[in-house]
Design the sequence.
């Protein structure tokens, strides 16, 4: 029985495996405890509704409502006294038969859109909602324009054919080089400014 | 020309960001100052009972529609900034003859009465908002808060936090004068 199993690499004794299993089970319990405790935030026992469906709705709604005292916390997670009052109001209104939207409207009527953690879509918030998209479009436009202009420049870099006049001058110059007397045509450049032409 | 314009783009972006930061980092700007949605709206319907031991009666929303501008101040004995603005409110009521009503926010009546005895009572009327519900209807999210209500019972201005001399001289008194015309 204590013989190590053949397939185990390195032949770990069963005792060790059992101990490991035990440890893993322990850790699982610890992790489960951690994760099960996490959602229980600021909501106090006396606030919790008897009806689990309504309570679930209340929790869901509270997570969307900003605590005006802490401002970056929802009333669901805030310990401020006002957050507690608002949580109770949310529950009272749900028990009274309000829809979720009616509860939110009730709070917005008193505290404005600021009380909503998710800003509503309306003309005043269009920039907020569409701003990032607009900036992305502008950026895309900018990058696109840049590449198009790059391509155009690359295209314009292909040499323009010489005009008849230029071609003629080039031919003359080439003809001169072959006579092996470049200084005749352009003495200054070829002799560092000193005048050595036979004419002088 | 179009090519030249693009060189101004960084400056434009800088100006926009700079302007935003200038606004955001202004030490006079209070990010906790949430604009009230109640401005220019009628005061909520409420009826606040008197604060026992204060010696003055309570008030309801109809008491704010009597043609006189009223300064409504939410306060509590446990609120230290309320004590800080107390002399200013007293002066407003006494010297400037402004009608001042108080909403006693989530306070023990005994504590509030004791506080008023100790520091003086500038309020012509005080309503006891023991559970804070009426204050929530007003949009109060902390004390002190001060509202200017016109003669028709419409909220015209809200001040968050303790009143200081500057706010009183520059905003409160001129607005009350203007509304009292």
Sequence:
């Amino acid at each position: 029985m204590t013989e190590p199993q053949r397939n185990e690499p390195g032949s770990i004794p069963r005792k060790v495996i059992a101990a490991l299993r035990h440890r893993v089970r322990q850790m699982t319990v610890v992790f489960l405890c951690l994760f099960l405790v996490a959602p229980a935030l600021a909501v106090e026992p006396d606030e919790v509704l008897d009806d689990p469906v309504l309570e679930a709705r209340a929790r869901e709604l509270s997570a969307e409502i900003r605590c005006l005292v802490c401002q970056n916390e929802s009333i669901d997670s805030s310990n401020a006294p006002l957050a507690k009052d608002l949580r109770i109001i949310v529950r009272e209104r749900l028990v009274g038969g309000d829809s979720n939207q009616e509860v939110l409207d009730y709070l917005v009527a008193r505290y404005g859109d600021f009380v909503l953690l998710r800003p509503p879509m309306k003309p005043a918030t269009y920039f907020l909602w569409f701003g990032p998209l607009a900036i992305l479009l502008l950026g895309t436009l900018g990058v696109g324009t840049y590449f198009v202009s790059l391509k155009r420049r690359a295209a314009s870099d292909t040499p323009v054919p010489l005009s008849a006049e230029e071609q003629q001058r080039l031919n003359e110059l080439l003809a001169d080089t072959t006579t092996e007397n470049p200084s005749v045509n352009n003495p200054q450049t070829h002799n560092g400014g000193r005048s050595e032409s036979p004419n002088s | 020309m179009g090519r030249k314009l693009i060189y101004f783009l960084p400056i434009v972006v800088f100006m926009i960001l700079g302007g935003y930061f200038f606004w955001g980092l202004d030490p006079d700007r209070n990010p906790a100052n949430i604009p009230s949605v109640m401005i220019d709206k009628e005061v909520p319907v409420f009826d606040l009972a008197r604060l026992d031991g204060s010696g003055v009666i309570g008030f309801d929303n109809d008491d704010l529609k009597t043609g006189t501008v009223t300064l409504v101040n939410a306060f509590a004995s446990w609120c230290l900034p309320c004590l800080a603005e107390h002399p200013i409110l007293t002066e407003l009521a006494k010297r400037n003859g402004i009608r001042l009503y108080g909403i006693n926010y989530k306070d023990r009546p005994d504590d509030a009465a004791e506080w008023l005895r100790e520091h003086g009572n500038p309020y012509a009327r005080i309503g006891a908002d023991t559970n804070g519900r009426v204050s929530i209807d007003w949009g109060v999210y902390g004390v002190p808060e001060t509202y200017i209500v016109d003669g028709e019972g419409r909220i015209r201005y809200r001040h968050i936090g303790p009143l200081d001399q500057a706010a009183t001289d520059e905003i409160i008194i001129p607005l009350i004068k203007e509304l009292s015309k």
